[in-house]
Design goal:
Elements: H1 14-19, H2 22-40, H3 49-72, H4 80-96, H5 101-125, H6 130-149, H7 159-166, H8 178-193, H9 196-206, H10 208-213, H11 218-244, H12 255-265, H13 277-296, H14 301-328
Helix pairs in contact: 2-13, 3-8, 3-9, 3-11, 3-12, 3-13, 4-5, 4-6, 4-11, 5-6, 5-11, 7-11, 8-9, 12-13, 12-14, 13-14
Amino acid sequence: MTSPRTYSDFSQPLWRRVLLTREMAVIVLTVAVVLYSLANVPNFDGPLTVQFLLQDIAPILLIALPMTLIIITGEIDLSVASIVGLSSVMLGVLHDNGLSVPVAAVLALLLGAACGALNGFLIAYVGLPSLAVTIGTLALFRGIAVGLLGTKAVTEFTERWTDLATDTLGSSNIPVVMVPFVVLAIGFSLLLHFSTFGRGVYDIGLNDEAAHFTGVNVARTKWILFVLSGVVSAFAGVYYTLRFGSARGDNATGMELQVIAAVLLGGVSIFGGRGRLHGVIAGVVLIGVIASALRLEGVTVNVTNIIIGLLLIASVISTPLLSWVATRLPRKAPPSEEPTTPKQATPAGV
């Protein structure tokens, strides 16, 4: 008799499952771009490059965390940059009317949660498509932000808080904002990859109806994700405002496209059901490094956007390409089964 076959008899080797992924490809490409920039781009190895690079990508890193989970469920949130702008205006208006920065920031976070709750309610419970809903709230939130301040800007913020937004950890060039980002990144990683909630997120992305019948509360899960997106976007808006010392209704205009581009570049499927946070973080860093290196080379923003757009298209094409390569690679053959019929006894004397 043969031993029963197990899952490992049919699975791919570990090195293939680790190395032949979009996440690993993005990480390798990011390292290669960094090394090339250090060797060939003037002043890229300067002492302030890391600080300015991390400060520039910090809002995108923050918003990309909940956006990853939302896109894995098969939804999308295009209103995140407008929530950044609205929370920025809220912080400025409240502080300008006598509230301290911490109190105004907390109220801005609550406003972000309310914006996310509105998106989540319309999408998860009313059943409207997320693309249409968040395009509408993108315009709504941005219109409210611009309407509150018009062409004016609030620039009188407590110096202690603006210095904190641009400060670094000790004598290093690591901005202080990386501390809350690391905390949030660990929290979202545990939520997505090591919890039943995260398994429900993947199930929804693969088939939300099947997820419902397996016990996943689809509506509640989506609503929670949009609320988290609103809160984190508002936090990014508070940081954005204090870093530049200016609250304006048009702050972070167009940032939603950078966030979505980084998430998709990091290996998350736009169709849902697939993606990992470490790939998304690498995607954000890759876009930031490319933009920083091209800026030091004197390349215009338009050319930078073209290059990043082409990179994003290539990353989307890589998904079917990697799948095609994986299907062509030889797999471990399952053990052959021996015949189960008993052998006939040999006649005596033969």
